[in-house]
From TrEMBL:
Assembly information from the UniProt record: Heteropentamer, formed by a combination of alpha (GABRA1-6), beta (GABRB1-3), gamma (GABRG1-3), delta (GABRD), epsilon (GABRE), rho (GABRR1-3), pi (GABRP) and theta (GABRQ) chains, each subunit exhibiting distinct physiological and pharmacological properties.
Residues passing through the membrane, by range: 241-263, 275-295, 307-325, 425-444
NCBIfam families (UniProt xref): LIC
Lineage, opening ranks: Eukaryota, Metazoa, Chordata, Craniata, Vertebrata
Protein name: Gamma-aminobutyric acid receptor subunit pi
Species name: Hemiprocne comata
Keywords linked to the UniProt accession: Cell membrane, Chloride, Chloride channel, Disulfide bond, Glycoprotein, Ion channel, Ion transport, Membrane, Signal, Synapse, Transmembrane, Transmembrane helix, Transport
GO molecular function, one term: GABA-A receptor activity
GO cellular component: apical plasma membrane; chloride channel complex; synaptic membrane
Length: 445
């Protein structure tokens, strides 16, 4: 049957008319028929597609080349990319040598009658061969027995990504071709022209990435069943960060600057400052949730964009806390002044109605009672713990109380308005310094 296909296509036109078309025999110049593999006549009398060329002898050398038609999608959440490629394989089968120097393109359905390499794509998740309008395959036969076998394949290949610097990252992905069943003793893989064997990848225009560089490798895969030849196309993709600057970095920076507006509003404007603080915190929270929604399956990574959003959220929350501290200190200071001014006014009114002698007598009596009860003299700042009648544990409590008053004095803000004054300078300064370290680290390290 196979012989009939080739005779029909005209291959036997180059053979003598008295010779029958046989794939297992090759005519030489002297008109003799010789088998392609001496010593294996019983296996090569007729063409056997289940046996590789040079069966039992040297390995078949398979040269490959690639055309990258497109890379349609690169998914960070699934850690893979989808590409459409044109895979071309060349090898020589001495059983298919015929007279002449021409080549013939055969019907792709004849592939079922030929031996072809069992090449597969390593780490492929999903792949399919295009079949519109017919199967996108090509078979071309040359007179020296060389076969060109071309396929159009769309495949989704796994790509291990490091997203720690996302979106300022550069990812390295691979397209690996390997023999499934034939080890290095049966077949060897080579690139047809080295790096020039790959075309089309330098012309790709991707939505988020730019192809930095690519190169080809030839290696071996050591498996439990043997050592298998493998070809690798490795390419580096650099993410375009401009989109993320406009979508995330600029809005988050503006929210931080908006939170600083509260420093120029007086402490008495509680609704205005509270509204600015709460609004910026909620807006920043929404921005953080939105930035992570597109990478919902990679939340385990602490990405560069997460670090920046965390920094912005900290500065916004710090501005809200700053107002709380300043307002609390201001209210405490007002409360401390109120008792000093209130009794003076009341004393003026009472002096008009109460006799000064009665006031002095009552004050002296109250003062004596206090001395006889505690034997502690109360000063304006600290408690005097040198009373002779004071017990040991009371002295310890008194000393600790004095220490606590002294420590609290260190943290007491004497002028709450200075908090806003210093915040106007310190918040922008620290934010600029953090930005310098952030961009320097993620862009150059």
């Amino acid at each position: 049957m196979f012989c009939r296909y080739f005779c029909f296509l005209g291959l036997c036109l180059f053979l003598p008319t008295q010779r029958r078309c046989s794939l297992g025999h090759v005519p030489d110049l002297h008109g003799r028929e010789t088998t392609s593999l001496p010593g294996f006549e019983n296996l090569t009398m007729g063409y056997n597609k289940y046996l590789r060329p040079y069966f039992g002898g040297e390995p078949v050398q398979i040269a490959m080349s690639l055309d990258i038609a497109s890379i349609s999608s690169i998914s960070e959440s699934d850690m893979d990319y989808t590409a459409t490629i044109y895979l071309r394989q060349r090898w020589t089968d001495p059983r298919l040598v015929f007279h002449g120097n021409k080549s013939f393109t055969l019907d792709a359905r004849l592939v079922e009658l030929l031996w072809v390499p069992d090449t597969y794509i390593v780490e492929s998740k999903r792949s399919f061969l295009h079949d519109v309008t017919v199967g996108n395959r090509l078979i071309r036969l040359f007179s020296n027995g060389t076969i060109l076998y071309a396929l159009r394949i769309t495949t989704t290949v796994a790509c291990n990504m490091d997203l720690s610097k996302y979106p300022m990252d550069t990812q390295t992905c691979r397209l690996q071709l390997e023999s499934w069943g034939y080890d290095e003793n049966d077949v060897t893989f080579t690139w047809l022209r080295g790096n020039d064997s790959v075309h089309g990848i330098e012309k790709l225009r991707l939505s988020q990435y730019t192809v930095e560089r690519y190169y080809t490798l030839v290696t071996k895969s050591q498996q439990e069943t043997g050592s298998y030849p493998r070809l690798i196309l490795q390419f580096e993709l650099r993410r375009n960060v401009l989109y993320f600057i406009l979508e995330t970095y600029v809005p988050s920076t503006l929210l931080v600057m908006l939170s600083w507006v509260s420093f120029w509003i007086t402490l008495d404007s509680v609704p205005a400052r509270t509204c600015i603080g709460v609004t910026t915190v909620l807006s920043m929270t929404t921005l953080m949730i939105g930035s992570r929604s597109s990478l919902s399956k990679t939340n385990c990574f602490i990405k560069a964009i997460d670090v920046y959003l965390g920094i912005c959220f900290s500065f916004i929350f710090g501005a809200l806390v700053e107002y709380a501290v300043a307002h609390y200190s201001s209210s405490q200071k007002c409360a401390a002044k109120a008792p000093q001014e209130g009794p003076a006014d009341e004393l003026t009114k009472e002096m008009e109605e109460v006799n000064i002698t009665n006031i002095l007598n009552s004050s002296i009596t109250s003062y004596k009672r206090q001395i006889s009860f505690t034997s502690i003299e109360i000063s304006s700042d600290n408690l005097n713990c040198s009373g002779l009648t004071m017990k040991t544990h009371e002295k310890i409590k008194c000393v600790l109380r004095n220490k606590m008053h002294r420590i609290m004095g260190y943290f007491t803000i004497q002028n709450p308005s200075n908090v806003d004054h210093y915040s106007k300078l310190l918040f922008p300064l620290f934010f600029m310094l953090v930005n310098v370290f952030y961009w320097a680290y993620y862009l150059y390290f």
